[in-house]
Amino acid sequence: MLMLTYRVVRQYLNLLNKLLINLLINFPFYIKYYLRFLVMPVKYHLEGNIAVFTIENGKLNLFTMEMHEQFYRSYLKFLHDDNAKVAVLTGSGGNFSAGDDLKESDTAIKSRENPRWDELLINQRRTKPMISAINGWCLGQGIVYSLLLTDIRIAGESARLGFPEIAYGMGGISGATRLGIQIPSVHAAYLALTGEKIGAEQAKEYFIVNEVTKDIECFSRAMEIAKKIASHPLIAIETELDGLHRGTELSRSSALEHASQQYINQRKLHLAAGNTAIGDLKNQVSNEKGTS
């Protein structure tokens, strides 16, 4: 009996010893893993039906691989939350984002880190609209996210946008963003090949942004538009966004067929929820009177 007790205690001590050794060896990793969730450089919160993403990492809001992962996971949360109808993406401290942290980006390329969270993020099927509120620097990965994840873009007067990658031997961003489809090809070629940074008004002329506001009004204007979108039924928002995206990829006849089927599907779901066209119209008139 005594021998059995001794063996159990010995096994327990050996196990405890292994755990302590593992803890000491991996202590820096555990601290880093804990801090990454304690400190979130990509903030996410809901304001009513509006999800707000804020890039917050120093003066320039440079992206790290951990930030791409945080953004990706928060973005999935936004897509799957029925309370969130639209999102606003912005940066803190007077800048949107000056792009990736190049040192960390080079390390990730050399190691072929898997998964690449930024690639997973931009390849997600977007079912809800996002608006970007851009102040200060919007370069590299910052403008990539703005072009590929947002549908409406508001720029403050201080905004400076561009693709400086070509100067660092990192060309090819125009293909990844399908820049020549989003804006006129001559503007796309100028931005991609020169690496020049352009101001807010020129970005508006290039059709990269919708509006230019005073810096202090940029975020509030984006939220104002988001509130207007959020006043509509989620199923209608998702259907309209799907039509915008798919319509550019399909032939005219296929686009019309797809739109017709989507309209039927959304009306079935909307009516099944107890809504009617007359009721929708009354609610819209009532809302417009209330805001006038």
TrEMBL record:
Gene3D superfamilies: 2-enoyl-CoA Hydratase, Chain A, domain 1 (3.90.226.10)
Database matches in CDD domains: crotonase-like
Record's keyword terms, sorted: Isomerase, Membrane, Transmembrane, Transmembrane helix
InterPro entries named in the record: ClpP/crotonase-like_dom_sf, Enoyl-CoA_hydra/iso
TM region(s), chain numbering: 12-31
UniProt keyword Transmembrane helix present: yes
Name of the protein in question: Enoyl-CoA hydratase/isomerase family protein
Organism: Colwellia psychrerythraea (strain 34H / ATCC BAA-681) (Vibrio psychroerythus)
The organism's taxonomic lineage, starting at the top: Bacteria, Pseudomonadati, Pseudomonadota, Gammaproteobacteria, Alteromonadales
